[in-house]
Every structure is written in structure tokens, then in C-alpha cells.
Amino acid sequence: MIQTECPNLNGCPFFNRLALRSSEKVLKNLFCLSRYQNCARYKITQSGGQVPADLWPNGKTV
Ligand code: SF4
Predict the structure, then answer these.
(1) What pTM was estimated for this model as a whole?
(2) What pLDDT sits at residue 1?
(3) Is residue 20 exposed (0-12), middle (13-18) or buried (19+ Cβ within 10 Å)?
(4) Going residue by residue through the chain (62 aa), what tens digit of pLDDT does each one get?
(5) What is the rounded CA–CA span in Å between residue 15 and residue 22?
(6) Per 3-state DSSP, what percentage of the chain is helix, strand, and coil (rounded to 5)?
(7) What single DSSP character describes residue 5?
(8) Any bridge partners for residue 55, and if so which?
(9) Most ligand 1 atoms within 8 A of CB, residue of 4, 5, 9, 50 to mutate
């Protein structure tokens, strides 16, 4: 069975910083619950790097 949910979803610190709950739902559907391999945060985690706190899954920072 192909895993579609990010293994880091429980406890991913990104969502603690997110003020807009509507954005959380959209991002989770776009990345965490489907194509998490495309998430910029996930990729850095997989490579053993330090994920910047303000890095969004789409690779942008705010
Ligand atoms: S933001 Fe990225 S690393 Fe965090 S749970 Fe979603 S897909 Fe995984």
C-alpha cells in the first residue's frame, strides 16, 4: 500500500506557527495528506538538514 500521509504530520512544528486555520487545511490537503514528498520541509528533514522555522511546504518563507 502506498503511503499518502506524511510520516512527520503528528508534531510537525510548521502548523504551530500558522495563524490562519483555513491555510492549514489547504496546505495539509496539498502536501501532508497527499504529495508530502514535494514538501520543502519534508525534503530537508529527509536529507538530515535543519528545517528553517519559517519555511513553508511550498518552499517559500514568510
Ligand atoms: S508540512 Fe511537510 S513535513 Fe510537515 S507534515 Fe506537512 S508534509 Fe510533512
Answers:
(1) 0.90
(2) 61
(3) exposed
(4) 677 999 999 989 999 888 888 889 999 999 999 999 999 999 999 999 999 999 999 999 97
(5) 11
(6) 40, 5, 55
(7) S
(8) 61
(9) 9
Cell numbers at 25, concatenated? 487545511
Which uninterrupted H or E stretch holds 51?
Answer: none
pLDDT of residue 19: 80
Kindly state the cell numbers that stand for 14.
510548521
To test ligand 1's pocket by mutation, which of 25, 30, 31, 56 has the most ligand atoms within 8 angstroms of CB?
A: 31
